[in-house]
Amino acid sequence: MAGGDEVKLLGNWASPYVARVRLALHLKGVPYEYVEEDLADKSELLLRSNPVHKAVPVLIHGGKPVCESRVIVQYIDEAFASAGAGPPLLHASPRERAAARFWAVFVDDELLAPWGMVMRSGTDEERAEWTRRTVAAVETLEGALGERSEEDGEGFFGGDRVGYVDILLGGMVPWVRVTERLSGHNFFDASTAPLLAAWMERFGELDAARAVFQDVDRLVEYAGTIQARAHG
């Protein structure tokens, strides 16, 4: 990549949001430098690059920062759309692009937000409520994936290839395993969400997923410390 066009990613190894960006970069075939951030002692580069939220991920392209994982993935799709790059992540159709953006917001607000609270809940009652909300969101996504499968005969939200929504949800796949190990609850269980369970297996077989996904044992240890703080 040309000298003034380098790509650098500021991230943290455990973050599913950072994993999203890494998945997009791998799928598009974009070379990049990864910089691990200590979130307890954030670098000056991170604070300068994301002064509003002071959070990862941050993509720096040609010296200019792009923040927030959903925005970054769209940016990668548009900025690296030249010949030789990987396939587009968002559909050419405005209607399809709008639908993908709708489900992207749903994944973050209705699924991942309560899912994260399941791990952090301090009481059994709180955990039960966040679990109920997470299960409801999974049921909705299962229906959405079923509609895509009927339309396209394929098992991805992007139709016949991995797309924007797949990447956003795909960043959570290792955390599905972590939740099951720590709580005994698999939100993508084949008995209750067979389409999502099959989708998760297919996604995990992608070369990009193999390159990016975190070690589940290490994540379990990390998540255990989060739970200990929540209960302490």
TrEMBL record:
Reaction(s) this enzyme catalyzes, per UniProt: RX + glutathione = an S-substituted glutathione + a halide anion + H(+)
Superkingdom of this protein's organism: Eukaryota
Gene Ontology molecular function: glutathione transferase activity
Location within or outside the cell: Cytoplasm, Cytosol
Coiled-coil boundaries: none
Originating species: Triticum aestivum
Class of the enzyme per the UniProt entry, highest EC level: transferase
Record keywords: Cytoplasm, Transferase
Xref: SUPFAM superfamilies: GST C-terminal domain-like (SSF47616), Thioredoxin-like (SSF52833)
E.C. no: 2.5.1.18
Domain GST C-terminal: from-to ranges: 93-226
Transferase listed as a keyword: yes
InterPro entries tied to this protein: Glutathione-S-Trfase_C-like, Glutathione-S-Trfase_C_sf, Glutathione_S-Trfase, Glutathione_S-Trfase_N, GST_C_Tau, Omega/Tau-like, Thioredoxin-like_sf
GO terms classed as biological process: glutathione metabolic process
GO cellular component: cytoplasm; cytosol
Family affiliation: Belongs to the GST superfamily. Tau family.
Lineage: Eukaryota, Viridiplantae, Streptophyta, Embryophyta, Tracheophyta
Residue ranges occupied by any GST N-terminal domain in the UniProt entry: 5-84
The keyword Cytoplasm belongs to this UniProt entry's keyword annotation: yes
Protein name, entry field: Glutathione S-transferase
Function: Is involved in the conjugation of reduced glutathione to a wide number of exogenous and endogenous hydrophobic electrophiles.
